[in-house]
Amino acid sequence: MALSVKQIQAAKPKDKIYRITDSNGLCLEIKPNGSKLWRFRYRFNGKGKMIGLGSFPATSLKDARNKREDQRKILESGIDPSDHKKGQKAAVSGENEFESISREWHSKFKPTWTEGHAKTIIRRLELNCFPWIGKTPVNQLDPPEILKVLRRIENRGAIETAHRVRSIIGQILRYAVATGRATRDSSADLKGAIPPAQEKHLAAITEPKEIGPLLRNIEEYEGGDITKYGLMLAPLVFVRPGELRHAQWDEIDLEIAEWRIPAGKMKARRPHIVPLSRQALEILNELKPLTGNGNYVFPSVRSKSRPMSENTINGALRRLGYSKEELTGHGFRSMASTNLNENGWKPDVIERQLAHVEGNSVRAAYNHADYLPERRKMMQWWADYLEALKNGNKIPNIKGD
Hints:
- The chain is α+β, with helices and mostly antiparallel strands.
- The chain contains 17 helices and seven strands.
- Helix 10 (225-237) packs antiparallel against helix 12 (278-291).
- Keywords: DNA integration, DNA recombination, DNA-binding.
C-alpha cells in the first residue's frame, strides 16, 4: 500500500532502525535518532541491493517517487543503479580518467579470463594507450584522439594489434557508459578507420609425409625428459599450448582414459574433455613416476609448484631444427584439424574436440560431453594414424562409418 505524507510525518523513531514501504521498491527508513531516509530496494543478478534517494522532508514523497522511477529505468536497461551512482560520483570527483577506469574494468573482469589473456590485455593498454590517453576523462575521449593511438600502432606495422586495442578501448568505454561515467562508446565511430589485418596462419606441419619425420625427431629429442614427454603428448591431444603446460594430475583419470580440463583453464571458459588414446596413456604412465608426486604434469624445471614455461615446447622445436615459420606448439592443432578433416571425420566432432566456440550463441552453449563416443573413437584413430606415419605403416581405416 502506497504511503501518504501524513503516515510519513506520523512515523516515530524506535530503538532500532525500521522501514515503512511505499511501492515498487521505495521505502522510508526511520533511524533511532529520528532521521528519515528514502531507500530504493531492488534485485540485480539475483542479489538484493539498496541505494539511498535522499532524506525526508528535504526530499518530498513526490520527489522520492520520481527518483525511484529514474532508478527503475536504469535497472531496466541492464545497469546496476548502485554502480551507476558510483560512476556519477567518480565523474564529479575526477576519478573518470581512462587509465583509472581501465584498471577498474580489468580488475572486475580478470576473474573471467585466463591468466595469460589478462596479462596481455593490461600490457596492451600500458604500452599503447596509457602514455597518451591515460589521463583523459572517458567522457571527453573522442574518435580523433582514439584514432591517434591506433595510428601509432598501425605505423609500426602491428595492424592486428591496432584492431585488438580498438576492441579493448570499446569494451572499457561501454563499461564507463554502464557505470554512468560516459555517455557513449566513441570508438564505435572508428570501424573501418584501420585497414584490415592480413590473416596469419600459425606455423604448422600438415603434410603426412612431413609428420612422420617430425614424430621420429621428437622421439630422438635429447633435452629434458619432461619436455620430451610434453612434445610426445602434444600432437596426440592437440590442446592449446597453455592448456597442455597447465595440465594437473588431479584432472587426469588414467583408469577411464580422460583428461577433464576445468573451465577456468579454457579459452572459451567451458570445461573440456580430452579422451586419452592408448598411446597418450603410455606416455602419461611413463611420466607419472617423474612428476606424479606434484600438482603439474609438466612442472617447471625450477619449481614443481609452477607449470612448464610457455617457451619450453617452442624452444624444444627450435632445438630439433624447426623454425618458428615451420612449426609452433600451437601448430599441432592445425595438424590434427587438417588431417582429421581430410580423412573424413565429421567437422562437428573435430570442432568439439578442438574446443572451438560456435559463432551462434545458442549452439555455443553446448555440453562439454557432446559427441563424446565419436570423439573417443576419433582420438584413438588419430593416435594410430600418427603411429603409422612415424613407423611407415599402413594408415588405419575409419571403422563404423
